[in-house]
């Protein structure tokens, strides 16, 4: 009968990954299943995060990057609940890399876009996510990301960066023949640039 104690499951799983005089090879397949089970059963976010991190490693060890990415995203979500912002970024970035190993650019970009708490870090991840889709020729899937990063730039009053982001969006729209979107985006960029010109004049005169 399977144990209902997540701590016992973790202990058993850890033992299966370690070599000994009686165990000459690690049983990652069995250990990973136990880590996963413990992750869903643990009520403490810190301990659940640890379980999913180990489950992710286990899936990598048995050559299953898709499932490894899923578990890393779960760990990232728990890190966010724990306010571990550096870990949030690291986990979602690793999840994105694992999705890319599967040749899945859309979930890879989605993983990067999930870290939306710290503005500067969110900008970097959104831009990286856009880059992944651009390289894969899926620019239209990045439209929401372009909009998100532009909005953050405007909130931070980084208007030149916002205009640059809009121009990048316009180029992407052109690449996928989204004429209506391209015209709308470039019009917004033009309006933003018009607002910037008086600011440049003031800055020059100071």
From TrEMBL:
It holds the Pfam family SNAP. One of its GO terms (biological process) is vesicle-mediated transport. Keywords: ER-Golgi transport, Membrane, Protein transport, Transport. GO terms for molecular function: soluble NSF attachment protein activity; syntaxin binding. The keyword Mitochondrion does not apply. It is found in: Membrane. The keyword Transport applies. SUPFAM superfamilies: TPR-like (SSF48452). InterPro entries: NSF_attach (IPR000744), TPR-like_helical_dom_sf (IPR011990). Transmembrane segments: none annotated. GO terms for cellular component: SNARE complex; vacuolar membrane. It is a peripheral membrane protein. Belongs to the SNAP family. This is Gamma-soluble NSF attachment protein. It comes from Dendrobium catenatum.
């Amino acid at each position: 009968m399977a144990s209902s104690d997540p701590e016992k499951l973790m202990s058993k799983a850890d033992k299966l990954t370690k070599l000994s005089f009686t165990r000459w090879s690690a049983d990652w397949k069995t250990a990973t299943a136990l880590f996963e089970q413990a992750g869903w059963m643990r009520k403490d976010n810190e301990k659940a995060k640890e379980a999913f991190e180990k489950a992710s490693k286990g899936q990598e060890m048995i050559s299953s990057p898709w499932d490894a990415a899923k578990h890393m995203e779960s760990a990232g979500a728990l890190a966010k609940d724990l306010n571990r912002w550096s870990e949030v970024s690291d986990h979602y970035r690793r999840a994105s890399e694992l999705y890319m190993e599967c040749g899945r650019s859309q979930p890879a970009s989605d993983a990067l876009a999930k870290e939306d708490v710290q503005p500067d870090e969110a900008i970097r991840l959104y831009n990286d996510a856009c880059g992944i889709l651009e390289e894969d020729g899926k620019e239209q899937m990045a439209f929401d990301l372009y909009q998100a990063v532009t909005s953050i730039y405007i909130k931070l009053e980084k208007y030149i960066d916002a205009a640059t982001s809009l121009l990048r969006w316009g180029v992407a729209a052109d690449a996928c023949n989204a004429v209506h979107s391209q015209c709308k985006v470039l019009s917004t960029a033009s309006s933003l640039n018009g607002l910037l010109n008086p600011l440049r004049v003031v800055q020059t005169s100071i």
